Automatic annotation (TrEMBL), chains A, B:
SUPFAM superfamilies: PLP-dependent transferases. GO terms for molecular function: L-aspartate:2-oxoglutarate aminotransferase activity. It comes from the Bacteria. It comes from Microbulbifer pacificus. Keywords: Aminotransferase, Transferase. This is Aminotransferase class I/II-fold pyridoxal phosphate-dependent enzyme. InterPro entries: AspAT_Ic, PyrdxlP-dep_Trfase, PyrdxlP-dep_Trfase_major, PyrdxlP-dep_Trfase_small. Pfam families: Asp_aminotransf.
Length: 424, 424
């Protein structure tokens, strides 16, 4: 199906056929959900031994009684797990509660109210701004929106953010004090930043406000589908450029063990970590060390962690294949949309023809398939091209996903044809 | 021993004898700790069945898969536990992570940056202030200090804060926007607020800034030592006065199950809860529901919870008795100090003669007994009378506590005699 070259009669004919198919599907009363990157039940079950794993022994390897108060940085054994995931020294890791989003929120809070490493608090800038590559992750945007930090977009490319555009913005505006990154299997495009991108990111501190921080949300650090995709080490790049203070790294076991009750990590330079700990010390006596110990027991060595992630990949692989097969079969020779083939992570990002995303999502919803709201991958929920749709294939069982994708491709076609007819 | 009426020779004689005793004790190389209200290992062990209690079944009673993302308010079964502890309706309870201090921090953050229930954010006031009854809890003060919210003290009495002083301050200063309370077994004096106090507190909103909030930290709601001490219900008092929005209640299972990995609760009016949830929604997808479910399984009914708290009381009772016995035996007929006899909670508050606390704590530390730093029970660490010392008897085993208290009473005597000699 090629819209651009189709005659009006052809479009009308397509619309009629698609409309009939759509009406039939609507009668099935489907209730399917592709909205969020939630692990499926069989993925969660991989970690069900967590409850009971302590076998009555609540002592951490270093002798800490994890049941009692104390230890703002988390137990050493958990920090080592975070260090393995982020490939950084354990001394630079703080192991927190169950949510890396919460750690990011407190890092923004720290920068905003108190300033990192002796720098000016962001609130004292005239118009503090974060850069966000788009499409991106709505929960990152929401943190900035809550603090009244403006969001400026830069386009994502196949190798990471458009670095020319990004550097230019930083040169032009000293009030840019942050950058959101999902550097591996980017949410939602699935892209992994290449070496040149990482190196240029590590140099941003040379042209940015001294308070500028890169929020390196490495949510999918070990979430490869087939082979291991290598993300260049931002810490090493920053150390090489004498810009170590400009990077804050985040990770968690949310998509490794149990999504709502994992362990989250932040890694940063000693100066940044001191700023974070100062903020946190007023807020908590320490994180849940018992749950940290459970995780350390589940993954005593990196090899167990890797083996565990292979099991996740085995469950996720057919789901990604299903999505890509539907897209390939229906749109490979068309002008109805573009997408990337991610090698890991939790999403497939699909771009419709200009101005069609909202209608695709509406049609899908009416047919019983919930998709992430149009615009969610852009700040303030506004996709200027109204074309990006984030598909999250992990949660539904394979058969449901297959049905949902049939509905989705049909809705893409119907919305595209109708849009073309309106314009004709 | 009575200092006031002692002759100089008598004081010198006492000093000599006490000095000798002190030197002997210093040679024992003790290492004892009465600093913080930490449960002892045998108390923690009461809840060791938590790990493994799920027996592979991660479903909450309402069907929620606790392993996955979602549910900002916590699971219903956990909220019901919080409702039991705080004696409020479950709909007004949010069950959070492991720390009620964190919930208080976020409540202050909400008031400070965004404002509760449509009220002006506290940061926009000229000089936002919290009132704190003293002696009080240092971690409450630390939250305000971090946000630059000034702290004004009001004296504690045997029935709660000095309400005349408190009301006067609120009448005099519209920038007072908060009040810290530990209403039952107050930290550190052990006092429980009486009905008149609670009723007057519930009426404060009538004379205060509309953004004024009472932080009702009911940390020891069910932590009675002997008989159940009844705290009047602040929610009901506030409803009766049409001031429900002026109260935020907090509790946790930190001193019920495992101190570092319990479940924390906040209870508030629908308008306040909406403000809190708005703030939290940018920060987290939801709390650790698996741990919440563990707690719900441990305490399916209020009766199990009560039985569990009786076991804590059995362990704590001899420790409080030990502290009080040392104080009674040494100081009942003296002018060396005053103290309350708490019916529950975690502390005994001791007031030395004017200006002696710091020296008692220094002497104890040198003899190997760590006490909470002098001044910690006052904002900015400054006890104007340098007399309050918080004794936390829960953590050490009984024999160690007994030794530590021998050191303590000796140090009180030595510091008091020396001070008197200086002044003479």
């Amino acid at each position: 199906m090629r819209i651009e070259t189709a005659q009006r009669e052809q479009l009308q004919q397509w619309e009629k056929e698609l409309e009939q198919q759509y009406q039939r599907i609507c009668q099935h009363n489907l209730s399917l959900d592709l909205t969020r990157g939630k692990p499926a039940a069989d993925q969660l079950a991989l970690s069900d031994s967590l409850d009971g794993i302590l076998n009555g022994d609540y002592r951490a390897p270093d002798g800490t009684d994890t049941r009692n108060y104390g230890g703002l940085e988390g137990i050493a054994a958990a920090r080592e797990l975070g260090a393995d995931i982020l490939q950084v020294p354990f001394e630079e890791v703080l192991a927190g509660g169950s949510s890396s989003l919460t750690l990011m929120y407190h890092a923004v809070l720290t920068g905003y109210l108190f300033g990192f490493a002796g720098n000016q608090p962001w609130k004292d800038l005239k118009a503090p701004k974060f850069l966000c590559p788009v499409p991106g992750y709505d929960r990152h945007f929401a943190i900035c929106e809550q603090f009244g930090i403006a969001l400026e977009t830069v386009p994502m490319t196949a190798t990471g953010p458009d670095m020319d555009a990004l550097e230019q913005k930083i040169r032009d505006d000293n009030d840019i004090i942050g950058l959101w990154c999902v550097p591996k299997f980017s949410n939602p495009t699935g892209v992994t930043y290449d070496a040149d991108t990482v190196d240029r990111l590590a140099q941003l501190a040379k042209i940015a406000n001294p308070g500028f921080r890169i929020f390196w949300d490495n949510a999918y650090a070990i979430h490869d589908l087939d082979h291991q995709v290598k993300l260049p080490n931002i810490r090493e790049a920053a150390l090489g450029n004498d810009t170590a203070d400009s990077v804050l790294q985040f990770a968690s076991t949310s998509k490794v063990t149990h999504a709502g009750s994992g362990v989250a990590f932040v890694s940063a330079s000693p100066a940044n970590l001191a700023s974070l700990k100062k903020q946190m010390s007023a807020m908590t006596i320490g994180p849940d060390k018992v749950n940290q110990l459970r995780h350390a027991r589940l993954f005593p060595e990196l090899s167990q962690l890797k083996e565990h992630m292979h099991k996740h990949a085995e469950i996720l692989r057919p789901k990604f294949a299903c999505v890509l097969e539907h897209l390939d079969k229906n749109f490979a020779d068309s002008d109805l949309g573009q997408w990337e083939k991610p090698q890991g992570g939790y999403f497939v990002s699909f771009n419709t023809r200009l101005g069609c995303a909202q209608e695709v999502i509406r049609l899908s919803a009416e047919a019983g398939v919930k998709l992430t709201p149009a615009g969610a991958t852009f700040p303030y929920g506004k996709d200027p091209e109204n074309s990006n749709i984030r598909i999250a294939p992990s949660f539904p069982p394979l058969e449901e996903l297959d049905t949902a994708m049939s509905v989705f491709v049909l809705c893409v076609k119907l919305a595209s044809v109708r849009k073309a007819l309106e314009a004709a």
